[in-house]
Each structure stands twice: as structure tokens, then as C-alpha cells.
Amino acid sequence: MPLPILSVAQMREWESASWAAGRSEAEVIRQVGRALAVRARALTAPGDRILILAGKGNNGADARAAAEHLTDRTVQVLHVTSPETELAALDEALGRKPSLVVDGLFGIGLNRPLAEPWMRFIQRVNEAHRPVLAVDVPSGLNADTGETYGAAIEAALTLTVGAPKRGLLQPAAWPFVGRLEVTGDVGLVPCPLRSELNWTVAEDFDGFPPARPAAAHKGTFGHLAIIAGSLGYHGAAVLAARGAQRAQPGLITLFPHESAYHPIAGQLQAVMVRPWDAAVRLPGDFSAVLIGPGLAAPEIPEEMKATTRRLWRDALVPVIVDASALDWLPLDPVPRGAIRVITPHPGEAARLLKTTPARVQADRLTALRDLSHRFGNTWVVLKGHQTLVGRSEGEVFVNSTGNPHLAQGGSGDVLAGLIAGLLAQPELQKDPARTVRYAVWRHGHAADALSGWAGEGRAARRAGWTVEDLLTQLGC
To answer: Which of 52, 285, 291, 392 is least enclosed by beta carbons within 10 angstroms?
Structure first.
């Protein structure tokens, strides 16, 4: 089950329900400490120096509890109750260049501006430019609003307890939160609360996609049509097709603009490639259609745009629209129950909503709702940091995977192809929300594996990976 994204008050309610049910606060602290140690070990190597900054509250107790599980690291625990008194010790400890700093100074209970000595203390940590693992919330950050109380720790990774807090997902918080991860089960009772926003976890996809029947054939898994690729933009079509291949639909046919046919056809083997022709009647026997990657050249014919509008308005099969083709979409209703997906980045979303990327980023949830409503209650994949998946009503899901190395040309084309390749399969059309969420999660997880955030941790990262490497990783 995805995790609800909670306010501080809701988190306190969950904790109170746990204590009332007989759960032990001391045991929860021990389990949080163990989870912290697991992440600290993944971020360091045996013998590395780790500096633990432990305040007087539960966050400090969590951080101290991690130390007993780090016996093969050189661990220094700095108990911080007075920032003036411990500042010199902090400077000395940071001067030893620790491989990791664990921030357990303040938690979600902080509710007032920091005094000047605390701001200086936090500033010293930030100026040291050492990787920081924050416990639950970066110290000094308001976990409801994402604003600082005058200063906040700039973490590389925030391991939040139980469920994400609302403020950690606000754009204002991103420079301080870094990568956001969740401890999972630490001994609290099952969360009794629900939320409009939900955090996707790997367990959401246990047993998904389902095993393929032993007697299956190509027809079992659908036939995807891709309209993509034009002069100067042939690579996007190739990447989208290869992303679709990683989903393993039965067949894929790619229809590029005729000017890009030869460079595209020369790079693909299992994918059938036919030059775009207005006489081709889609969807025909195709079980899904993807339109958009690499269709940015000025010679795109009006017939191709008209076909996009017709498919969006009338087709009963899933239609997935990305990139330049987003600008061709009609505002007409779509058939009841038909699956429609759009995959804009913030700039494209702003263009569709006639606003600015900054406004989209300031309220990504509202932008997603507005886009879905505008285009017939379509599924929206609002890309970017913490990609959102949802529609105009109902739950919206925040993706938990991915990292800044996805910010390179072609990664969105791979994602569009992966989504379309999955939705071409009749069995996976039965639950489009889970299918789209899975594609987004898997795409980000592959990037995390390449960057060392998944599996064995940072020690396993690959420097300078490319989108072609991403495609390879998607097949692992």
C-alpha cells in the first residue's frame, strides 16, 4: 500500500495511537536507529568516519541508536544541547572530514524561529560541504510548510520516519531535504490515516506485472503503434521504441515522419518501422498508440496533428501523448472508460495551462488536477523531482524513485515508451493507475541503480551514465 503523506498533527495522532495500543517508544527509537544505520552503511565504506549530531529530543535518540550498528565505522557522537558550548567541538569534528554527518539535532516538534547560536551551528555544518543524512526532517525545517526557521541543514538524504511529511515535498524544502526516503515499518501500528497525496513504495508492485501465461503468444501482449521521429529528432523515436521494448508488448510498429525513416529504421531490429502516411488508419488492430517523441521539426504535416486529435477524441484503445504532440490535443470529451495519458514536464505543463513553469512548480498538485480536467480526466504524469501521477479527482501518487541524473535528453522519451509498452498489453489495461505508476517507479529505480541509490548504495554508482545505459538497466 502507498504511504499517506501526513501533516505533523497527523503524525502525532499516529504516534499516539501506537502508544495507546501498547507499542513502545523505546522500541521504535531502536528500530529507527537500525534503519538509519542501514542507510549510513550504504553511504559509506568500512573504516569511514561518521559524525553523529544528536540533539536532546527523540531525533537525537534516533541518531544515537544508530551508532551501535556502525561498529565497523569510526563513529563520533556529538551530544548537542548548547550550540555555543559545542561549536568548537563541531569545528574540530568537521575538520576531520567525516565521510557522513548524521543530523539528529531537531525533529518535527520544532515550532519557533531558531536562536542565532543555533543558526550559526547549522551554518557551520552546511559550510563544511560534507554529505548529510538527516533523521526524519532536516534540522531547522518546518515539516508542514517546507520553510525554514531561519536556517536548516542541507541534507543529501533525508530518511523520514513512518511516512513523508507534507513540508518535505514542497519546492521550498527541496534544497534542504535532498533525496527523500522513508524508513518503512519501525514498530508503529498500521497507519490509520488517509491522504489525498500518497507516497509510492516498492511493495506497491509486489507480483506486478503478473506472470505471463505459459501458452501466451505475441497477440496476448498487444501491438503498440508509435508515431514519433522527424528530421533532426530521430533519436527520440528510437529511445521511445526501445523503452517500449523493455515493457515487452507483443509487437511494436513505429511510424516516423518520412524524413527520419532511414536513420530510425537503421537502428531498430525487432521494432517494425513504416514511414508515416495519412492513409494509415489508426488504431486499426493496434492495442495502444503513443504519439509525440521527436515530432518537433517544422515540417510535421497537419494530417499527423489531425490524426492525433482524432485518436484522442475517438479511440477506444489507450492513447499516450508526450512532448510536442501535447500542443495538438483537443479539449473535447473522450470515450467513457478510455485510457488517456499525458506526460508533460513543468515547461510543457505551463504551456498547456497558459501559465509559467514557476507557478506549476509552486503548486504541482493543482497543476496536475487542472491538466487532467482540461483534457478529459486524463491520467497525468507530471514529470520532475518527485513525479506526480493522478487525475482530476481521487488519489495522487508521488513517485519515490529517480534522481537528478535523469535530467538529460532522452530520458522522457524512454519513459513515454515504457508507459505505452505496458498499456498496450490488455491485461495491464485493467488497472491503468497501477500500470502507469509502475512505469514511472521502474524508470526512476533504474536511474537509482545506475547512480548507486538502490541496492548496494552509493558504492555501486556508475559515473557518467547515459540514457542508453538507462535502457540497459531497465532490462535487468
So the answer is: 285
